[in-house]
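Entry 14. Structure prediction run on the chain below.
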Amino acid sequence: MKKIFLTCIAVIGAVVIAIAQQKQRSVIRVALSDDSRLAISIDDRYYDKQGRSLTVGDLPAGRHKLKIYSFVPYKNRKGGRARTLYSGMITISEGTITYLTYDINSDKLRAKTEYLETNNWNNESDATHPAPPRDHAYSNQLNGQDMTALKTTVDERITDTDKQKLVQSVLEGRSYTTEQVRTIISWFNFESTKLDVAKWAYKGVSDKQNYWKVESDFTYSSSKDEFNTYISSQK
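Output returned:
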């Protein structure tokens, strides 16, 4: 009886911790007043993605160092030129989404904050930016337009979990290349998610002989080993 009681306490404790962690999640969305392309870094971590607005989720409440860069892509689309527009500290509250707009003309950062519970962010995002259609008239092979549409929709998701669900729902039953998978996993913030998606995506890759190249997209040797072990088990 005592063992059952302790087990129940442990389960309840885990649920309470999970709820607390959920409430602690905060989000920022950054844009420029002229709607031009930008890049950002938070707490000296540069996010390798650019766009007309950028959303970063799962941030702890408190003060963060934010840098905003203007970004002009090179003609070959391989990289671009970044210039620092803003560098300063921002404070975000627990369980909120903060919309930040850097005013090009006044050199000021404007902020608007809403609570995630009342903002209903996920539902609004789903309605405004639906997943790319999977019409029967489309080719089964993922093409450039599909990738562009998918990237736009992924950028509107807050967490890696939401992004992963979206990506897998769109890719299910489709065919795609190794390079497309490498591009897709670069859209995620956490290595664990990148690894999960890379392993899941192996089944639909049209050029499996090239899939070993994905290994170089992981930072940690443990991730590389797990990836290679999984791929070997699928052959």
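Helices lie at 2-24, 116-119, 121-128, 144-154, 160-171, 178-185, 191-201, 221-233.
Filed with the rest of this week's runs.
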